[in-house]
């Protein structure tokens, strides 16, 4: 991590390195299978995968911001929001990110960007309407912790393999349907079955790896934001308020926001799953318990 005043998190660093290694290994194995299966069209395979990687890594922040309807705002358009970001960046010795607002009643916030210099922090109008200044500052400190620790870039890279596997699955099924009407037999017909299955396994593994990292990085950002501001109770209050307000948002709006849960401050929809295995965020109870522990630590002489 580049030098900032955010508390370093070796646990997060270790998990990011492990995730990158496992995702990289999975990527190499998947590419090997594709090159063997489509050895006559290997330049096309490399072009497709390389193009998807560049698009995912370089444009993911713009894609996410555009998908959420985020628009960048100037200090003149949002003076209080910019002032809060300015204070936190000065306190953390962190380059100021671009600041954006998304016009939606879903109370949330997210950070994107492949580096500290290219980062963007976005809050929704629903969040601005509901939070007090100290609570908003706690949420912003949480999001800036993601930027400082660079875990947004790692999540973007980790998500790439899932996007690639899903794309390959659709292409393989589409080409299989085209051949199906011609009575395809032999190795070609076998590939039509194997490629989607392999892609599905790769997608599932990459999905689990990103979910495991996502849950820990949220706890890390909570801790980093609370220690930076020295007000864990404000962040806890924001978490409680946002989680309580989610039930009042129309389900249609929550469904629209759900695909971006891994990047949000709080999940738009948080259905109960087996041991939380598929959840993008730790439970509210666990997050509040950690903040209470930090509050006790800060209160000790």
TrEMBL record:
Chain ranges passing through the membrane: 12-35, 41-59, 152-177, 189-209
Family: Belongs to the peptidase M48B family.
Statement: the UniProt record of this protein carries the keyword Iron: no
Known cofactor(s): Zn(2+)
Localisation: Cell membrane
Name of this protein: Protease HtpX homolog
Superkingdom field: Bacteria
Membrane topology: Multi-pass membrane protein
InterPro entries: HtpX_protease, Pept_M48_protease_HtpX, Peptidase_M48
Species classification: Bacteria, Bacillati, Actinomycetota, Actinomycetes, Kitasatosporales
Residue ranges constituting the Peptidase M48 domain according to the UniProt record: 75-293
Active-site residues, Swiss-Prot/TrEMBL: 143
Residues that coordinate or bind Zn(2+): 142, 146, 218
